[in-house]
Amino acid sequence: MPIISIEQAGKYDGQEVTIRGWLYNIRESGKLVFPIFRDGTGIIQGVCALKENPEAFQALKGLTQESSVIVTGTIRAEQRAPGGFEMGVSKIQVLQKVSEAQPYPIQLKEHGVDFLLDHRHLWIRTPRQASILRIRAEAVRAARNYMDSQGYILTDAPMFTPAACEGTSTLFEVNYIDDQKAYLTQSGQLYIEATAMALGKVYTFGPTFRAEKSKTRRHLTEFWMLEPEAAYADLADMMTLAEGLVSAVVQSVLANKSIELETLKRDTKKLENVKAPFPRITYEEAIAILNKHNNPTKFGDDIGGDEETIVSNEFDRPVMVHRYPAAIKAFYMQPDAERPDLALAFDMLAPEGYGEIIGGGQRIHSLELLKQRLQEHHLPEEAFNWYLDLRRYGSVPHAGFGLGLERTVAWICGTEHIREVIPFPRMIYRVYP
Ligand code: 4AD
Ligand code: MG
């Protein structure tokens, strides 16, 4: 008897197979029971009649939600069943029956989001959450494939760091061994600037941490970032890489995770357009779009969440906004030679109100200018001495960016909040479970 996963059921039409999973739901109707099983790859409806399979019928009758089961039966096409196939159950082994006295906490009704987040370890079993996590995995796979195919070498950056990368207000301080001070990394960028000088084209992909006090649908305190960095590269090179990467990720999810997108009821029409090239506009052009929509943003202001939505609504795919005022960007941004008040920086804004998914640009390669910027930003030069070495020994123009995985996946999945797209979200007031 073949042991199969539910996602493969269609290949076994008419055959007897075994499925190992959990009881997701059950409906009883006289001498028939209609259990729904899940195994992580999908769900399948079963049918069992008292008359034909009394033992299995008795085992199923009154069986509690999320009891673990090994079920054997015949697969047959059934148009009305979810997934197009059902199983005529002939045999069932219950590994653990969930106690009736302490039933599975997540019922098949609407629960409040705080309750669901408190039960995140169980919530991930629901088909919707499982689909999101499968799409996340596909996005990661596609992103890595794309970077590898472009000749970028994976070089992992450390999590413990001696200094800030993205502003000191969101640093998590760690009591490191023997009372040395360390911080959780906000970005691997500074380290991959070093590995880029060693290997040419590199990337890092891992968790990053920000003590974000903001309670928005776009902020986590722990999130994953994919960061490429290349020697002898400029702003335009990075915008080209970024649009190629995002197109590859979206198109891979569309091609390989259509069932999951359907489970999420995602309107995929809007994702189909996501193909390079993406529109590129300057910060000043973005301001003009905002003003046209009676938004008062002026030169020198940050483009916030609401503003990002107004700008991105003008386009049918992600838009890249470049050349921001240097004053509102990080210390390491290379100024535009023709307009030194502008930084050679860019952000990619996702459509449908999902906002910034990528931030990056060209880095300062002059030792003198970098030292000056550290001073202006009140950053301690000693902690950055190793970073300044990269400008002392064979400095070259270089550039890179960071793609926020959760914001990208939230957009692809169409979820309301990014907390749903990471297995265990970490937010301002949540580190449990
Ligand atoms: O724009 P950010 O801050 O850029 C950097 O950290 C650069 N050092 C990256 C680089 O050039 N190598 O962050 C990059 C991306 C954002 O566009 C966003 O997608 C995501 O990281 N991000 C967050 N995602 C979830 N929660 C947060 N609190 C985030 N902060 C940034
Ligand atoms: Mg940014």
Question: Mind explaining what this structure looks like?
Answer:
By secondary structure, this protein is an alpha+beta fold. The chain folds into 2 domains: 3-96, OB fold (Dihydrolipoamide Acetyltransferase, E2P) (Beta Barrel), CATH 2.40.50; 121-421, BirA Bifunctional Protein, domain 2 (2-Layer Sandwich), CATH 3.30.930.10. Helix content is 30%, strand content 27%. It is built from 13 helices and 17 strands. The chain has helices at residues 54-60, 113-118, 120-123, 127-149, 189-199, 235-256, 258-263, 269-272, 283-292, 305-312, 367-376, 385-392, 405-413; strands at 3-4, 16-29, 32-38, 43-49, 68-77, 85-96, 153-154, 160-161, 173-176, 180-184, 201-209, 222-231, 280-282, 319-325, 342-350, 355-362, 398-404. The strands form 3 sheets. The protein has an 8-stranded mixed sheet, with helices on both faces. Strand 3 (32-38) and strand 4 (43-49) form a beta hairpin. The longest helix has 23 residues, at 127-149. 38% of the residues are buried.
